[in-house]
Amino acid sequence: MAAIGAPWPAAVGVSGGSDSLALMFLLRDWARRRRLAAPVVLCVDHRMRPESAREAHQVAAWSRKAGLVAHVLHAADAITAQSDIEAACRTLRFRLFGEWAAKRKLHAVYLAHTLDDQAETFLIRLARGSGVDGLAAMRSVTCFPVPAFAHLKVVRPLLGFRRGELRGYLKDAGRTWFEDPMNGDVRFLRARIRQAWPQLEALGLTRLRLAETAGHLGRARAALDSASQAVAARAFRPLPDGVAADPRALAAAPRELALRALAGILMLVGQRAYRPRFESLAALFDSLIGSGIGNGKTLHGCRIAPATPKCAPFGACTLLIRPEKPSNTLGKG
What we know:
This protein folds into two domains: 11-205, HUPs (Rossmann fold, 3-Layer(aba) Sandwich); 239-323. It is built from twelve helices and eleven strands. It has helices spanning 18-33, 52-65, 85-103, 115-127, 132-135, 163-172, 189-195, 197-202, 207-235, 247-252, 255-270, 278-291; strands spanning 11-13, 40-45, 70-74, 108-110, 141-143, 153-155, 236-239, 242-245, 297-299, 302-306, 319-323.
């Protein structure tokens, strides 16, 4: 049940939908057979709908009936994001999951993404013009997407299963689940994709085929990551308060690898879970290797500026990448 290399003991995020409930029962049985600690169930009351609190407590009741310890995590405030509600919910869940798991010294949070989710995510990112990283498959084991909880892992053991299989498993056991109304709300692209599956599959764009394509791109991503790490080893040096950069080494590398290496350093120094937007990253890169950065530039929580002679491991061209200091606007206005 657990993916190869997946850490345990762990928590499992359960929304009450069919996928996450199936994962909860599967993990429970898997742990029992191996005489391991049972998974801890975490359910988020995101306060987006009036019934969210009731549903979260129902999930906790189902979990306890299954012999599992369950905790309902409450959002401090209702989500008000208008432009990307799904992203806001995802950010909230990961923050609450990470805070809880870190305090209890657990090693991972298991999530119930399926082959269907893999295919849907591929199409969503394709529509947004994503590159290799965006189109690549979700990993079965990956780092937690919140820098403060980088020691935790996210584990997705159901990526090879179809949603229909999991619902069949629950039906055979006589179990029920909640249907999230967002899944049928055509304001969201994922819901529109689900409605369009018959037309897409008639064109040969099946869920399985798209998930396989995402898997191919995942292997390409891994190869690019490995090569970009070699570029980073040549172009950057750690310092007590940041990182020194050699723009000559970046300029000499293939552009894609250099961009990836630079993005990785910005994420590290700026303590960000995701890479900067490509357009901003490319503009900064072109300044570093070409026109210059003047007195300095900022991006992704970092300030990039020329080094002083006393702190220049790459010579006069050395640049320093440090955390950006928060602006103090008190007393201004």
